[in-house]
C-alpha cells in the first residue's frame, strides 16, 4: 500500500526515539539503502531559455541500517532555515517551502539536475528517498516559485509522490507576465497601428500585465535590493508632444498612489515635471506592493497629441513601451524586458515617398504628384486671343501647362460647407509653379475638394466649380495576416483615389495612386519598409482663361482703342448740342 512521505516520516521519527536499541521497522524482504532511487518529476516548466536549469535540492533524508529505515533528518541544506523536521512532518506549507529555499545558495549548493522529457514540459531525474526543494534558474520570461517533491518508502520499495505540495498542487507554480500596448479607438480598427491627422489626440493603453507571484525566495542575498516591476513608454520625439491624463490601475480600481512613482522625461531624456513637454514616462511599483498583489492585473492609460512635425506616408512614427520585471531569485537587478511598439501614419498629397524600387538607391525620395493644376499651353502669346489662334481661327489647344495660384480647400461634407481642420488650421492648398496641389497631415478618410479661388496670372481664369471626392485608404498588418509580432500595425499599402462629381450627382474615378510596401524585420526587432512600389494615375484639373479685351498688340493697339473711345465721346457731345439747338429754334 502506497504511503505519503509525512506518514513515513512519522514512523521514522518514532523509530528514531527508541534509544537505538530496537527498531519499529522490520527488515524488509528486499534491503533498502541510500543507493536506491526512484524518479522525481516537475511539471509545467515551459520557459524556452537555453540557460534554464531545473534542480532538486534535498532537505530531508532517510537513515538506513541493515537494509531498513531507521529514521529521517534534515540535510545540511536545511540546517539554519528555521524549519524543523517536525514542521515538515506536520505538512509542508508555503512559508516553510520559502524558508527552505531561501536557505539555499544555488551558486554553490549541490543539487540533482533534472532533464527535460522531449516534447513535454516535464523535467525528471532519479533520486534517493527524501524530500526535495525544486528551484528553477536561468528562466527567460517566466518567474518560477520553489516547489517540493518527495520519494517515500512503501514496504520494501520506493514510491514517487509528486502530489504532496505547498498549497494544493505539486505542479510547479509559475508566472509569465504578458504585455500589450494598444491604441484606443484606432481609426483603422487596428490596436497596433493607426492613421492620424496632425493635431489629433491619441489615446494609449498598456495592459495584459500582472505582478508575478513572487515567493520570498526572491530576496537579494544582502537585502539591499528590491523587486522591480516597472513600465515605461517613449514617444516619437518628432511626432508627439505632451503626456496627458495618465492613469494607473491595479485590479479593478486605481492603484495606491503611495505604492508607485511616475517619472517623466523630455525629448532630451532629462527628467522633467512639465507633463506638457514630456515625451516619456516610467511607472515604478514598490517592493511590498508587488509582493502583496500576486497575479493582480496592471493597466496604464494616457493620451498625447500628434503634431505637425510628424513624418508622412510610409515614414512611420513609432512609440515603444517597455516592461521590466525581476526574474532571477538571487539577483534582483537582473530583469526580463518586454517591449511593444505602435505605429502611426499620416498622409500627404503631393508629398515625398520612398522610391527605392525605381532607383535601387537606399535613400531615394520623390514627390507623388497625385493632383495637378493645368491650363492650355500657348506657343506664342501674341498669336492667341482668348485661346483662339489669330492665324488659323482654330480653338484647338496645343498642350497642357502647369498653372500656379489656384486655391483649393478640403471639406468634410459633399456640400462643401465645412472645411477640414488640420492642426487647428483650414486645409487650404495653392497650386505651385509646377501646378502641384499639396495637402499634408491627413488621416485616412474621405474628403471633398473644390477650387475656391481661380488664378489671375498670366490671364484671368474662370473658377472651376466642379466637386472632387478624394479617398485615402490604408491597409495595416493585423493578426489575421499571420505575420510576426513586430509587423503588427505596420502599413503594407495605401491608395489615394480621386473622383469627379457629374451632373447626375454620381462620381466617376479620374485618378488613382497605389503604394505597396514590402517590410521586413531586422535583427533586434526593428522594421524596415523595404522597397515601396507605386502606380500613380495623375489627375489634371484644367482652368480656362476668361474672355478679355486684347492687350497683346502693344502701345499702338491701345492708342487706337483709346482714340476710338474719345471719338465716340465727341460724336455723342455734338449730337446732344445739335439736338438742344433744334429744340430751342422750334420754340
Low-pLDDT parts are 1-29, 161-170, 379-398, 549-562
Strand order of the largest sheet: 13-23-22-15-20-18-19
Distance between the termini: 155 Å
The value of Rg in angstroms is: 41 Å
Strand content: 35-45%
Coarse shape: elongated
Mean pLDDT metric: 80
Number of domains: 4
Helix content: 10-25%
Specify the number of helices.
6
Q: Could you give the count of β-strands?
A: 43
Question: What is the subunit organization of this protein?
Answer: single chain
Outline the biggest β-sheet.
7 strands, mixed
Class per helix and strand makeup: mainly beta
Description:
The protein is mainly beta. The chain folds into four domains: 5-175, no CATH class; 180-345, Immunoglobulin-like (Sandwich), CATH 2.60.40; 348-542, no CATH class; 553-587. Helix content is 12%, strand content 40%. It is built from six helices and 43 strands. The chain has a seven-stranded mixed sheet with strand order 13-23-22-15-20-18-19. The protein has a seven-stranded antiparallel sheet with strand order 34-31-36-37-38-39-42. Strands 2, 3, 4, 7, 9 and 10 form a six-stranded antiparallel sheet that branches. It is elongated, with a radius of gyration of 41 Å. It starts with a helix and ends with a helix. Residues 1-29, 161-170, 379-398 and 549-562 have low confidence and may be disordered.
